[in-house]
Amino acid sequence: MTLTPVITEHWDAPDLYTLDGYQRFGGYRALRNALTMDPDAIITTIKDSGLRGRGGAGFPTGLKWSFVPQNDGKPHYLVVNADESEPGACKDIPIMMANPHALVEGVIISSFAIRASHAFIYIRGEVPNALRKVASAVAEARRAGFIGKNILGSGFDLEVVVHAGAGAYICGEETALLDSLEGFRGQPRLKPPFPAVAGLYASPTVINNVETICNIPYILDRGVDWFRQFGTEKSPGFKVWAVSGHVNRPGIYEAPLGITMRELLDYAGGVRNGGEVKFWLPGGSSVPMLTPDHLDIPMTYEEMAAAGTMLGTGTPMIFDTTVSVVKAVTRWLEFYKHESCGKCTPCREGTYWITGMLETFEHGHGAESDLEVLVSACNQIAGRSFCALGDAAATPFPAALKYFRDEFMAATQTPVDEQFDPVASYVFAGAVAR
Amino acid sequence: MAISETTIERMHALAAQYPKSRSALLPMLHLVQSEQGEVTPEGIAMCAEVLGLSPAEVTGVSTFYTMYKRKPVGKHHIGVCTNTLCALLGGDAVYDALSERLGVGHNEPTPDGGFSLERIECQAACTHAPVMTVDWEFMDDVTPSSAVDVVDRLERGERVESTRGPAIRDFQATEFSLAFPDDGLASEGNSVDDKMLAGLRYAKEHNMAAPTFGQES
Amino acid sequence: MTDMLNQEVVATVNVTIDGVELQVPKGTLAIRAAELIGVEIPRFCDHPLLEPVAACRACLIEVEGMPKPQPACAQVVSDGMTIHTQQSSAVARDAQEGVLEFLLLNHPLDCPVCDKGGECPLQNQAMSAGRSESRFEGEKRIFEKPIPISAQILLDRERCVSCARCTRFSEQIAGDPMIELLERGANQQVGIASDEPFNSYFSGNTIQICPVGALTSADYRFRSRPFDLVSTPTACEHCASGCSLRTDSRRGEVTRRLAWEDPQVNEDWNCDKGRFAFRYQAQDRITTPLVREDGTLRPASWPEAIDVAARGLQAAGSATGVLTGGRLSVEDAYGYAKFARGVLGTDHIDFRSRANSEEEAQFLRACVAGTPLTVSYAALESAPFVLLVAFEPEDESPIVYLRLRKAGTRVVSIATRGTKGLAKMGGSLLAVVPGREAQALRDLPADIRQALSQPGAVILVGERIAASVGGPTAVASLAAATGAALAWIPRRAGERGALDAGALSGLLPGGRPLTDARARSEVAAAWGVDADSLPSTPASDVLDAASRRSLKALLVAGVDPADMPAPFVTDAALERAAFIVSLDHHYSEITEFADVVLPVALVTEKSGTFIDWEGRPRPFAQVFKDSLAMSDASVLGMLARAMGATAGAWDGPGIRREITALGTWSGQSAEVPAVEPEVGPTDGFRLASWRELLDAGVMQEGEPHLAATARPVVAVVSSSALSALGSPASVTVTGPLGSVQLPVEAGEVLDNVIFVPMNAPGCSIYTDLGARIGAAVDVTAGGVA
């Protein structure tokens, strides 16, 4: 399958991040047209396009928009989830740094469609360079009359606030993001009510991922039929794939949904040093890992689910045979333990327990019987925690055990660093003496 | 240390940006760090006063987020991603090298206050692993020696460019940018690099393109 | 109207739980529905009066059609829903067991030394629904334990299960978010801000609702095991809120008091004074009767003391004044009312040991005494509008504060000072000069009058209205003019009961006017006395009469002269009275003057009834069943018999029968007062004051941890007045008797008003300043010159 740069098409233009640069390539044309449309017609267009959320869950975007009650007398809000913090996910931050106006234009159109007069772009605080690029784009758009009162004479008013987070993975969970945006601890909210009915400030709110919103101007500008040329019936469109790990050319590759990992791997120059894939994850640490056996499965929401994993954020991580899966899983669990918000028991206590057990394996003194306890503890979290973070934390170990039980058995005897020389997995291996 | 009048005015300005003022709490706490170098009890009290909250409510928030520091960080706050991918690709070695160079561990400042070091979680730059941040600006694709070199140069007062972003300032300057992100630096430095262009370049080299408007594939 | 009709019809849904079909009101949570069929689903974060959070996950159940187990505490049942709890679902059982295992991972197994052991939901549920053995072999989380989060409350973070009941209570119910969850993940912990302790008036409730032993009190810590305690249902003796309590005792000593659930009154809550202030009971008790001989009190036998007292009172007869104080049970107050009229033949009786006036007495006789229970807590909750007059609920009737806050009722307060308590109720202030409430009531803005005209609107007036000339008159006429319901909320637990019992001149039991012949004959019949022997002319002010030597004897119950606005008048009355009989359980200033002291029972040593501000009886049972102490009424009965009178029953049950048989007055009420407001300039600084909940009150003695959570003692002036004084840190306030120096801060008072706590440690406006509410006081910056 061929590469199809759309969102990334003009990233090599040095001034794309500016209003002039963006407009030179047709930027804000979609907005001008959108403002002449009936907002409901825009929602219908997005529904018809089949666009699905690019944040990980893949929920149909137009459907989400259509849940917002209209004429309810309450203010509506659009919130962009730019809290990209999933281990392995690294596509929203590059989009915002390279093409911030695509996001801003998408925000204005989307707000118009859902009748929101206030939009918030919640960007994780650890990436000031993405924040300043988007904030600068918002300021430029405001000066150009695309944001503010009576935008382009349409009578539509919109304020856009660029908001910095402060370091909490959980804020990628949409209701935790809302609490965080309201100035609280970022802990997820009880649902129902769902954000579409009672979200930000208890008003109807749509929360969309950065990449999702960036699709909007292109779909409106070029049409549903154009969009549906890409991808599959259930997973239409293109995707900004970010390929990382032990490949020769890690980076951003934009291609239709349905491309295979083997094809992406090929574009990325193959496994480094001519090595082999040991395991890989299609979209973040929260999706079950796959093996070389799965390289030819089309990467769509539905095919990945059928393979027992998820497309997730669509940012594959490739690990070659120098890597200890025990170490990888332990480190991910340390992450989930660190990022568990603490609200619910299974996630708070379960990540504490599982991480502790895994660390015994990493140090070479895991107990074989603990493998079953680990599976059982994961089962006690999955489906029982308050939000998806718990489910995610319960994911890496069972998937790894399924494919690499022997490695965990070996870790009952030998520390993983003795089994796998850490230096071998470094990308600067040999360049450095420890 | 008392909060300055200017900062209090800015807090009110932040609060005014939102339909409900409490939304400004996170940016306000960044602002506190930009002035105080950490979230001080005075900063907590002032946020509480401006927003009509209790100090406990502000403390609950400030201790939830890892970017808010309870003790002074260095002039430059260095983060090394030690999440799985970066760690395995060399982040652990980078961290160890910096820890040795600076003589400090996780979330500790150097005695002279010049630097502090933190093991950070995934920075959304996995394509650029191993990733380091200096005052939260990207220092991509580091090695132990290049990371130590950055410290050396900063210590000598040399200008150090972020790999994707403007030149390094200091921790407090960045915290101010987080409170007010339209900081005038958007055009400084380079934000799009080879790795971000990898697919586009490949496509161009191989005459691949998305079908444009009206075209059938 | 349609809304009211709709409320009558409760929509229901049909649900099946563990195979049992039941019908429940729409909106019912699964955890409550299961309770209805006797199925107790484990829970920690769930509390019926707090918003569901579904955080602890202990209550996971299986709901048919849902892929994952659902938290029963947040799952609203819908029509046709089929639910399986742990009783009928392996999934639910497994999920619950898993959560309990998780909760115990980091829980220190220090149950043997934990206050909660034996009454601990975690312990109980671990026994009933948990694994018998732990699979956890790692290291438990370690925290320093315990840490004080106030002088009274200690926090053991190792035991905490992060259910957030305490933090949610403080924020949602008390409005005091001084404790919060801090940190996150496994480090999440309850905590306070570094410089603000958990000094909420309601902090003790968090200990009671904590489902583990994470929160304990300095007062009760390590004092007892729950299974060694004897529990008695009681009512709080402190204020007129009327809280139901459970008093736990062991070996003749009260070990702790808990709020006891009463949905109509205090729900599940009480205030810290009600919870912790009981140590006064055991201190400095009078153990034997005392008789004065050669100027000093000496122990005497009961027969001797009764004989001396009876002869002295007999000699004074109708020239005896009776002061009952505001803390008696309704039975005891009734005993005094009867003793005064039926035995002594005097109408010189007054329960008001506080600032009062004849106008107030008229108001109480006409508008409050014997009135049925119309304004209830529920009425406050449903009221569209509540006007507060000279009443600070958080300090003076904390459960009223909680209920107004819960309801989110629109509140306007005619008050001398705007407070945080008012802000926490979302109320707005109509600031007045102290003593000038009457004029403010007359000049009420039209929108407030209009709000009061809505059906269900309520006026709540405090006892401090007595300090406003024309105030009681203005309140009564405002209620009459607008149709708003009127309730009087005194501060002390016994005042409403004393009023209903007739312990006020001009008033017989059940709200009967003394001047009405039929009222007198009804009462005389009940007492078995000749109606003509009862006084028929209302008496004047007891203390005034005593100090003018027109009274020969005083019979005094638990009265503290320092509570009177003019202590020197009280002292003069005491000095000039020829003969004084004191019935008390503790030594006091009165006993120092008394000729005979007769010891009486504490609330723990008798059963009885308080009447709360609503007019609702609040019965309390006897905690120490083997106590030989006699109630006031029983002692009065002995005196009556020694004086050759009977006058009906003098024991608790007998008095209750008499009160019930008498019922309330059905005839013409007494005349409402008609007193013109005070006019004229209010020059200089005028003194605003009330008693804060925690202060130097004698019934708070012996509990230093509680005292340490009291609010700082400060004077409050307006910000412009503060600048005019030169923005000092402290001020000296001077009245006729003297001065106090206090820290000062700016607050919501008028520019010519200074607020000073009425009875704080080292600061009593009566004894230190000699000034009453509304008096002109001198205010200077800094210390005493």
What does this structure look like?
The complex is a heterotrimer of chains A (434), B (217) and C (785). Chain A is an alpha/beta fold and 434 residues long. Chain A has three domains: 19-223, NADH-ubiquinone oxidoreductase 51kDa subunit (Rossmann fold), CATH 3.40.50; 238-310, Ubiquitin-like (UB roll) (Roll); 325-425, de novo design (two linked rop proteins) (Up-down Bundle). Helix content of chain A is 43%, strand content 11%. Chain A has 20 helices and eight strands. Chain A has helices at residues 19-24, 29-34, 39-49, 61-66, 92-98, 100-114, 128-143, 174-181, 195-198, 210-222, 224-228, 261-267, 301-306, 325-339, 345-362, 368-381, 388-393, 396-410, 416-419, 422-425, and strands at 76-82, 116-123, 159-164, 205-209, 238-245, 251-256, 277-281, 317-320. In chain A, helix 3 (39-49) crosses helix 6 (100-114), helix 5 packs across helix 7 (128-143) and helix 14 (325-339) runs antiparallel to helix 15 (345-362). Chain B has a five-stranded mixed sheet, covered by helices on one side. Chain B has helices at residues 5-16, 25-36, 41-51, 55-62, 84-102, 144-155, 171-179, 198-205, and strands at 76-81, 108-109, 115-120, 132-134, 137-139. In chain C, helix 10 runs parallel beside helix 17 (471-482). Chain C is globular, with a radius of gyration of 28 Å. Helix content of chain C is 29%, strand content 20%. In chain C, the strands form ten sheets. Chain C has a seven-stranded mixed sheet with strand order 15-14-27-26-25-16-17. Chains in contact: A-B, A-C, B-C. At the A-B interface, helix 5, helix 7, strand 3, strand 5 and strand 6 of A face helix 2, helix 5, helix 7 and helix 8 of B.
